[in-house]
């Protein structure tokens, strides 16, 4: 009995050993075949654009219209800032613009009045010139009469005085026209300054309206929000990061292959992607770009081999891989993946 039990045990043991050897041989051969046909790395992660949504203006948060990790669409209102201060600035800028526009209307009326006054000045010049010409002729006549002793010296002197008055009135009328023209030039110069001021006030009004619009913070594109770290009533500053948003419409894989693996790689090459979080699920993609340098060259403090402390380490080259599968909604940025590139 013991001999039969020993034989059965030996047969069972040998069978298990054979199975283990067969399974090991199968996976080893599979690995050799796969290694011969693919370049593989597990130094790879899913990437996506993660952008912070920042405040363009400061103020108190009036309301928050999202929850953590919520899916949002382009233009959805996320945060509303108390806008009373910015609304007041818009009203103030509007009033300043209307004041400048009213002053421009008054100035235009003054220019029109001054231009109309030039016609009156010209009529006064014409009348003064006619009177001056008349007195000039009378003085000439009296001068001849005085020589012929047909007029007295007193009458001549009276005519001389009238002539001087007419000449002064004629000169005054001409000077009045010059003064009016100078006044018009001054008003036109003020008109140009006031037009420039109106442009400035218009720009200030537009700037105030833009700041008012910034009190409503919307989603810059469709995606999934990150952690919620703000609360209603909180004071925020201009430029402060409020919540990150992940672009769900564009994801890719960054795989860091060893420098000895990329010799045969090219853009457009087919790629198989196995994600650690999803068993028995293989995604497909293509190589979109191969970095122009090793990853260490992009570091903040790249290595300097000229110092003499050189240790040769196999470098890795970042390779960008685009998903060709469309059903990748469950794929999250940062997930670890295993990438296999067909040789």
From TrEMBL:
p-hydroxybenzoic acid efflux pump subunit AaeA-like beta-barrel domain boundaries: 252-341
Coiled coil location: 83-211
Domain named Multidrug resistance protein MdtA-like barrel-sandwich hybrid: residues: 53-243
Bilayer disposition of the protein: Single-pass membrane protein
Subcellular location: Membrane
Transmembrane regions: 12-33
Record protein name field: Secretion protein HlyD
Organism: Flavobacterium subsaxonicum WB 4.1-42 = DSM 21790
Lineage of producing organism: Bacteria, Pseudomonadati, Bacteroidota, Flavobacteriia, Flavobacteriales
